[in-house]
């Protein structure tokens, strides 16, 4: 079996990178088949350059970014597994929102103008019979930190918030409650979750080490399965700076909806989500829907 001595992997702090946490611990103890050098960063752009230069063999990134990179690199990367469902929740300071009808006339704060959060928000509102331009007021802020401050101060009554930020701000303002799970509402419309995070590998790595990826995926799935031990995983999330504190991680991890889908199951699971993003803005998935070559299936 032709395995590399080391695998260079990158991930985002938060849910997308959390699947690495038990793998990182085992690798440090020499308990994995290969040594995994996992680097965690706060911004996807930092990972893009690593993938395009070949410094990263594998990376955990948003699914739409993976689709865009597939197009931009002419098939130079492939999606090898899906690892995160939708981590967005509507937080409310109050008890007004019991269903989507209650959003009418409200102001909704969010980050991500012109990107996935806005596309998801507009899609859900429209599907529920609410005109996002007439029936509600959408207010977008630039950064999660700004959104958190508005929620903690009580200046934002309703907001679309990702985990683990959701748990973090609730800890600082106990009047905040989760009013609506985007994942559940999306499934009620489409029967499938919006799959927001994934793993990709470079085509160069896949071709050079064809035996490595099945081994990696097996150990990565074991790492994800290990998250069910919440106490241990929360402590490791703090240790590896994936989530700020073990206390926050323990509450947030169940709502981070970390999952594992690979092989032939990926394309049918995610195509509907990609179609929604494509319909909102084709550039969000790289200008066209990813073809079958985007999805890695072991030979």
Please describe what this structure looks like.
It is a single chain. The chain has 299 residues and is α/β, with parallel strands linked by helices. It has 13 helices and eleven strands. The chain has a six-stranded mixed sheet with strand order 2-1-3-10-4-11, sandwiched between helices. A three-stranded antiparallel sheet has the order 8-5-9. A two-stranded parallel sheet has the order 6-7. Helix 5 (116-127) links the parallel strand 6 and strand 7. Helix 11 (230-239) packs across helix 12. It starts with 5 loop residues before the first strand and ends in a 19-residue tail after the last helix. The relative contact order is 0.21. The model has no long low-confidence stretch (mean pLDDT 95).
The profile of the biggest β sheet is: 6 strands, mixed
Shape: globular
In terms of DSSP E residues, the strand content is 15-25%
* Rg estimate, integer Å: 19 Å
Summarize the structure.
With 299 residues, the chain is an alpha/beta fold. It has helices spanning 15-18, 21-28, 44-53, 63-72, 116-127, 144-153, 165-172, 182-190, 203-208, 212-225, 230-239, 246-252, 266-280, and strands at 6-12, 35-41, 58-62, 77-84, 88-93, 107-110, 137-140, 158-162, 176-181, 197-202, 258-262. It folds into two domains: 6-85 and 195-294, Periplasmic binding protein-like II (D-Maltodextrin-Binding Protein, domain 2), CATH 3.40.190.10; 88-190, D-Maltodextrin-Binding Protein, domain 2, CATH 3.40.190.
């Amino acid at each position: 079996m032709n395995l590399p001595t080391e695998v260079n992997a990158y991930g985002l702090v938060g849910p997308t990178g959390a699947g690495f946490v038990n793998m990182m611990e085992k690798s440090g103890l020499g308990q994995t088949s290969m040594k995994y050098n996992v680097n965690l960063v706060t911004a996807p752009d930092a990972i893009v350059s690593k993938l395009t230069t070949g410094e990263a063999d594998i990376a955990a990134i948003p699914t739409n970014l993976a689709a865009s990179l597939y197009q931009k690199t002419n098939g130079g990367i492939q999606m090898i597994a899906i690892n995160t469902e939708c981590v967005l929740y509507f937080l409310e300071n109050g008890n007004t929102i019991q269903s989507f009808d209650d959003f009418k006339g409200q102001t909704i704060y969010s980050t991500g103008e012109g990107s996935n959060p806005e596309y998801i928000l507009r899609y859900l509102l429209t599907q529920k019979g609410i005109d996002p331009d007439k029936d509600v007021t959408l207010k977008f802020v630039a950064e999660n930190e700004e959104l958190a401050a508005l929620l903690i101060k009580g200046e934002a009554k309703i907001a679309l918030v990702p985990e683990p930020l959701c748990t973090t701000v609730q800890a600082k303002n106990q009047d905040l409650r989760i009013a609506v799970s985007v994942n559940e509402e999306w499934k009620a419309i489409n029967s499938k979750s919006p799959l927001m995070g994934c793993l990709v590998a470079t085509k160069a790595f896949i071709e050079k080490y064809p035996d490595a990826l099945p081994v990696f995926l097996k150990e990565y799935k074991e790492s994800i399965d290990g998250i069910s031990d919440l106490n241990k995983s929360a402590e490791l999330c703090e240790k590896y700076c994936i989530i700020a504190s073990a206390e926050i991680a323990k509450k947030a991890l169940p709502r981070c909806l970390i999952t594992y889908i690979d092989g032939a199951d990926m394309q049918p699971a995610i195509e509907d989500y990609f179609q929604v993003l494509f319909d909102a803005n084709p550039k969000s998935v790289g200008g066209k829907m990813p073809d079958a070559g985007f999805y890695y299936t072991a030979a």
